Amino acid sequence: MCGIFGCVLHEGAHAAPIIHSALKRLEYRGYDSVGEVTIDNDRLTVKKDSGRLEEVHAKYNLDDLPGPVGVGHTRWATHGRPVYENSHPLVDCKSRIAVVHNGIIENYLEIKKELEAKGHTFQSRTDTEVVPHLVEDYLSHGMSLEEAFRKTVNRLEGAYAIVLTSAEQPKTILCARQESPLVLGLGDGEYYCASDFAAFLPLTRKAVLLDEGEMAVLDPKGVKILKLKNAAPVKREAITITWDPESAKKQGFRHFMLKEIHEQAQALRDALRTEQVYYDQFSRKIIEADKVFIVACGTSYHAGLVGSIALAKIAGINARAVIASEFSEEALDLVTSKTVVLAISQSGETMDTLNAVRDAKAKGATILSVLNVLGSTLMRLSTVYIDQNAGPEIGVASTKAFTSQIAVLLRLAATIGRKKGEVSAKEISELENALHKTPALIQSILNTKVEDVKKIAEECDGASSVCFLGRGINVPTALEGRLKLLELSYVPAIAYPAGESKHGFIALIEEGFPVIFVAPNDDTHKRIVGNIMEMKDRGARIISIIEEGDEEIRNLSDRVIEISESLPSLVTPLVYVVPLQLLAYYLSVIKGHDPDYPRNLAKSVTVE
Ligand code: F6R
């Protein structure tokens, strides 16, 4: 979703190229237009348009904007199509105030009408444009810029991160947040604000978190935080970001997604390093809860499904996984002050997940979370959180975050299982040992199976649809394989519990229809063999992910990818998903798409 970066640099410094590079680091969030504003000699200069960052730069040369203070924005359209007029920054009538915004201002029509009646003219169809005009209006009543900004933001309803620059105070940036992400960076006499740390990571690792309902003033003297409600000053300690700036670069890989697929072995080792004390805290709260819900979206929801099955199987915990955007309909009525909501979110900023968490919290529920971005809104809403420790995930399609989420959830289930004595200590130890083997196993897939997967991708090119089937713990793996493939290759894909396929889906099967089975040698094996035969008999082209040496399924399949080690069933999704990630990646590349920036998608979905 929208990316924001603002900077106040030393006198004489040139902000524009720094803003340009920061916007590049925010590209992964997903966007359809770009803009920058800088201030020099008390004059604002704006350049913006729809299109990719480098297209807009080629057209306008973003780097020659003058001055040491400025703001950049990548916009993911919500109100108003992605065209020049609707791109940010948006300005007031006299072009003295420029504003960029991430989120949605729900009451903008009412404010717009009021301002139009006072003679303000609007150039765009965005909700954002009311902000510079309202500030302009308050300034005309003699207020200071800070007060006019605070008063304006207090009138807004909805979710927003807003950043303003003005020729009235050319060395100052004002920003505020409510529900949408915004963090501050502290350099050496230079100050930044951004949608996420990645934007300023090469400039500084010292950050300050802005809470909801707060605004900040950045100027050459430093950063000042105030409560929006009453302008009360807020003291906040800086934190140090541990992410290595190098890890947010491609490092020789053609795409971030491929790099992140390859980082999974290390990401898993890092995820498994989290101290046991956090799992113990989670366990206590889950064991004591009257109900447990897991909430998440997309890939994180699939990890949640794995967690839900694992908690049932080895911990005797009934934890229902609910798609976050459906939580208020499906589950909120059941939430009490004794309920635990376990939220899973790589970014910690997904609005649907945050809304579910806020609703549950309002009813007194305990919020536990598994997240990858420290300082995120989800972290701040949580009673206890576990850091996945996967490092920055830039590719829009989640890969290493998924496998590390599963590792965390399996370790959690094992901790509870051990505490409750639900299954034998031997079984739990086997699972824990297998978890520690997964990094090496994933590495061996990456070392030896890529060419086989590429061949399958070539054969799938031209298919009008692809189907993924699995059973038990690998139903979520099939769902995840499908999501990756369709979002990156734009090929409609289907995923089912394999046993359910004969209740409808099988009608689609005709000669050559690719059906991919996630088929480890666990206690679902016999039944999945039956499902493979059902598909094969009707002409499906069978592709199976199997354990090495599984001759039965190998003989039934047109192609197989073999996983070299036997694993406890619960651990298999972690490893068996890797060939599916590679398949989606290579099919996307074969089709000439950019797997890092699939169309219409955003990395961080900060709107409902
Ligand atoms: C798909 C994908 C998305 C995210 C979803 C939730 O490849 O990445 O489905 O998983 O938008 O994002 P987080 O985990 O940041 O809440």
What does the model show?
It is a single chain. By secondary structure, the chain is of the alpha/beta class. It folds into three domains: about 5-250, Aminohydrolase, N-terminal nucleophile (Ntn) domain (Glutamine Phosphoribosylpyrophosphate, subunit 1, domain 1); about 255-445, Glucose-6-phosphate isomerase like protein, domain 1 (Rossmann fold); about 450-608, Rossmann fold. The strands form four sheets. Strands 3-2-4-1-10-9-11-15 form an eight-stranded antiparallel sheet, covered by helices on one side. It has a seven-stranded antiparallel sheet with strand order 5-6-7-8-12-13-14. A five-stranded parallel sheet has the order 17-16-18-19-20, with helices on both faces. α9 (about 300-315) runs antiparallel to α16. The structure holds fructose -6-phosphate. Fructose -6-phosphate binds near residues 298, 300 and 487.
Radius of gyration: 25 Å
CATH class of the largest domain: Alpha Beta
The percent range for strand residues is 15-25%
Write the CATH fold name of the largest domain: Glutamine Phosphoribosylpyrophosphate, subunit 1, domain 1
CATH-level-2 architecture of the largest domain: 4-Layer Sandwich
Form type: globular
What are the segments in which pLDDT stays under 50 over at least 5 consecutive residues?
Answer: none
What is the total domain count?
3
Tell me the major beta sheet. Answer: 8 strands, antiparallel
Strands in their spatial order, largest beta sheet: 3-2-4-1-10-9-11-15
Question: If helices are DSSP runs of H or I spanning 4 or more residues, what is the number of helices?
Answer: 19
Average of per-residue pLDDT values: 94
Number of strands: 25
Distance between the amino and carboxyl termini: 11 Å
Percent helix range = 25-40%
Task: Spell out which ligands are present.
Answer: fructose -6-phosphate
By CATH, the superfamily of the largest domain comes out as Aminohydrolase, N-terminal nucleophile (Ntn) domain
Query: Structural class, from helix and strand content?
Result: alpha/beta
